[in-house]
Design goal:
- The chain is an alpha+beta fold.
- The chain has one domain: Immunoglobulins (Immunoglobulin-like, Sandwich).
- 17% of the residues lie in helices and 44% in strands.
- The protein has two helices and nine strands, in the order αβββββββαββ.
- The protein has a five-stranded antiparallel sheet with strand order 1-2-3-7-6. A four-stranded antiparallel sheet has the order 5-4-8-9, with no helix packed on it.
Length: 126
């Protein structure tokens, strides 16, 4: 039983991050083909914005919409490791904190027409 839980619990944790809850935006998403995966959420208490792809190279644009509806966008260069190109950015280092509430994050690929949908969210408490 302990062995089953050791494998099942991490799998459920992954599903909880990737699968959106009803009437709520997801904190992570992978395309049906697995070409692109992106997420936002705390890692050791720090909110991280992540995208991984093997479909393209170059830069991505990350936009964060704060609870007050203000929006801030920044470009990030994709870094390559073993054929996968990725971004892993600390939110607080690049985007302004606008108080408690839900922040919406969107990623756009090298061509401005490559908007990754759905956007993902994270929530800050007071």
């Amino acid at each position: 039983m302990a062995r089953l839980l050791r494998w099942t619990l991490p799998s459920l944790a992954v599903l909880a991050v990737v699968a959106p809850a009803p009437a709520q935006a997801a904190s992570g998403f992978c395309s049906p083909t697995g070409d692109n995966c992106y997420s936002v959420g705390p890692v050791k208490g720090v909110v991280r914005l992540k995208l991984a792809t093997f479909s393209f190279q170059g830069s991505v644009r990350v936009c964060v919409t704060a609870p007050d509806a203000s929006r801030s966008c920044k470009p990030f260069r994709l870094r390559e490791s073993r054929g996968v190109f990725s971004v892993d950015a600390r939110w607080s280092a690049h985007f302004p904190r606008k108080g408690a509430g839900t922040y919406r994050v969107s990623f756009t690929g090298p061509s401005s027409s490559t908007l990754f949908k759905p956007s993902v969210t994270f929530r800050l408490r007071g």
